[in-house]
Every structure is written in C-alpha cells, then in structure tokens.
Design a protein that fits this description.
The chain is mainly beta. Helices cover about 5% and strands about 65% of the residues. The termini are far apart. About 20% of the residues are buried.
Length: about 375
C-alpha cells in the first residue's frame, strides 16, 4: 500500500506552511516597527519602555511626570523615564532645565527630544526637559479653574436652605505656581440667617529646583459674624517642598507673617482690632484613588502670637467623582478650629469648632 504523499504535494504543503510562518513573522515585525502619527492623525502617541502604545492627548509634562489623556484609559500619569517614544502633530511648548523655552512640533525617540520650531530643528536629551505645555507659551495656557456649587434645601416643619461654593484658580508655569481660592457658606432656617462666612486666599510659589520652592507672598481674607470676626486679613511668606509620584502631588510648606483681626464686638475695655505675628505650617495633597475618583486634601495649623493668642486649625477634604467630561460630583468636608475664640460684647464665646459637609457639582475649565 502506498502511504506517502506525492513529492509535489509535500513541496506545496511545506511551501504554504513556510509562507504562512514568514508572513506572520513579517507582519509582527512590521507592526512592532510601525510608527504612529500617520499623516492626518490629530492625536498624540506615547510608547512606554515596556513596548505598549497609548493614543490620546498630552495634558502636561512637569517634574518628570507626563499627564496623558488616553482614548481608553482617561487621564493617566506616567513616569517620564518610562516614556521611550513620543510623537505629536500638535504645537507644544518645551521648557529646558537651563531656563530656555521653545515652541514647535515634538518627537521623542531613543532618549532624545527633537523640536521643530519652524526655523530650526533642536535636539535635547530627554533628561534635560523640565516641562511640556500644550500650545504656545501664551498666558491663557497657564491658567485653569474648578468651580463647585452645593445646595441643600428643606421645607415643611423646618424651612432651611444652605448654599456652599468653592472656586480654585491656578496659574502654573515651568518655574512658578499661583493658587487662588474662594470658599463661601450661606444658610437660612425659617427665614433667619444662620450661616454667613467667606474665605479668600492666595499663594505664589517660585521653584528653586524640581522640588524646593519659596513662597514670597501668600495671603488670606476671612469674615464670619457668627465667629465674631468682622474681618481678618493676613500675609505671610515661607518655603516648601514638593513631592510628586505617579498619581500624587504633595506640597509641604512653612512660614510666618502678620495678621490683623477686627472683631464684630468686644467686651468693655478691650480692643476691637488687634495685630499679631503668625506662624504657618501646612500641607496640600492631590491624588487619584482610581480613574474616576480624585481626592484633594488640605491641612494647616497657624499659631497666632501676642495679644489674644490662639491657634487656628483648618482641614479640607474633597472627593470628586467623574460624571461626564469636565463635570464631577463632589463630596467635601471642612473643619475649622479656633482654640481661643473671642467673646462678643455680651460675653458669649463662639464655638471652637465649625464643621461643614457639602455635596454638589463642579466643573473644570
């Protein structure tokens, strides 16, 4: 019995198998070497040292962390050292560690960043890149803001309305960071005002290095008639340290300054306005718990020296749950503690603790 195949059949089968194997090998090699950012592609591409590609948009690179808005993963934060390739068809602004800055299209390969400015092609080691900002170095690209509003209303046996709002405005450049904040709380119960306080603050940080910064000027304005404070203003200066990880920004700061407090009323023989020296120590934390949940937390302790000495503590914690696009659902807690509140003219001492919980919506700009 003849059990073998005809030689021509064996040749055809072997040739087919070889062609399929080679075709797969060629396809794999071609795919791994296929550069993204083909003509007409308007999105950015990032390749990690592991070989994985991400497609989306660069948000910001600063302090060795690249924020990238992925098509599938939303915003991710990548260690700059783990980025092996970056291709972008968009105009980006790049700050070099020696202070030089330029604008153009950017491509990173083999540890070198090339910038086509339109007039020349510049090349720098990736380790010398301090920051990358989307767009040209215009003032509008430095600013961002978050606005939150919370409303609680009840009717029936008790008519109550509470409104809380918070606004955070930031101006961030490769060398500085300006933060402006406002928080206001207002409430009425059965037509009678029960809460009315407002706080505005600002901090200006100059980076001496990637982590060390000085605060040449910071200030705060606060008013709360129910704490017997008609107006409290303060200015201070100091220094701080900035810690950054893949999903976390953490600022530690300390300093000192001056505070002026004008009380609503005081007991006979006491000054309605006092001036004090202050010490300020605090921390600010911004981190991502997941792809859709962010946490902002602040803590500060401020010893007030001299007349009417006291210590002010403040805690703010906010959870932001992504709803749709730039709109989030927020849950926040604010705690203010005054160890030695000032009694009013009737001898009534305000409560040492003020605790506010709020739920509302916020939008990022």
């Amino acid at each position: 019995m003849h059990t073998g195949y005809h030689p021509s059949v064996r040749i055809i089968v072997a040739t087919t198998i070889f062609a399929l194997l080679m075709g797969g090998a060629v396809t794999a090699v071609a795919w791994s070497d296929l550069p993204p950012g083909a003509e007409g592609d308007t999105l950015d591409w990032v390749r990690l040292s592991s070989g994985e590609w991400l497609r989306g948009e660069i948000v910001l690179m600063r302090d060795e962390i690249l924020e990238f808005d992925s098509e599938e993963l939303d915003t991710v934060r990548l260690d700059w050292a783990d980025v092996s390739t970056l291709v972008s068809p968009r105009v980006l602004s790049v700050a070099i560690r020696d202070g030089e800055a330029m604008t153009g299209t950017v491509e990173l390969r083999d540890g070198d960043l090339r910038i086509a400015t339109g007039q020349a092609l510049r090349e720098f080691p990736a380790t010398q890149i301090h920051a990358i900002i989307v767009g040209e170095l215009t003032e509008a690209n430095y600013w961002s803001a978050t606005v939150n509003a919370s409303l609680v209303a009840r009717s029936g046996n008790t008519d109550q309305a509470d409104f809380t709002s918070r606004t955070d405005v930031k101006r961030e450049t490769p060398a500085s960071r300006l933060t402006l904040q406002y928080q206001g709380n207002y409430g009425r119960t059965d037509g009678v005002e029960t809460v009315n306080n407002h706080r505005g603050s600002g901090n200006y940080n100059l980076y001496l290095s990637r982590k060390l910064f000085v605060t040449p000027l910071a200030g705060e304005v606060f008013t709360d008639t129910y704490q017997n404070i008609d107006l409290r203003t303060g200015v201070n200066a100091g220094f701080g340290y900035y810690l950054l990880r893949a999903e976390t920004d953490w600022w530690l700061y300390a300093g000192g300054g001056y505070q002026n407090t004008r009380y609503v009323s005081v007991q006979a023989g006491e000054d309605a306005t006092v001036n004090n020296g202050t010490i300020m120590v605090g921390s600010t934390l911004e981190t991502d718990l997941s792809e859709t949940v962010e946490v902002d937390a602040e803590y500060s302790v401020r010893p007030i020296l001299g007349t009417n000495a006291t210590t002010l503590h403040r805690v703010f914690i906010a959870l932001a749950f992504e709803l749709w696009g730039d709109i989030d659902f927020d849950a926040s807690l604010t705690w203010d503690h005054n160890t030695n509140p000032k009694p009013n003219a009737d001898g009534v001492e305000p409560d040492k603790n003020d605790l506010i919980t709020a739920y509302g919506l916020s939008i990022d700009f």
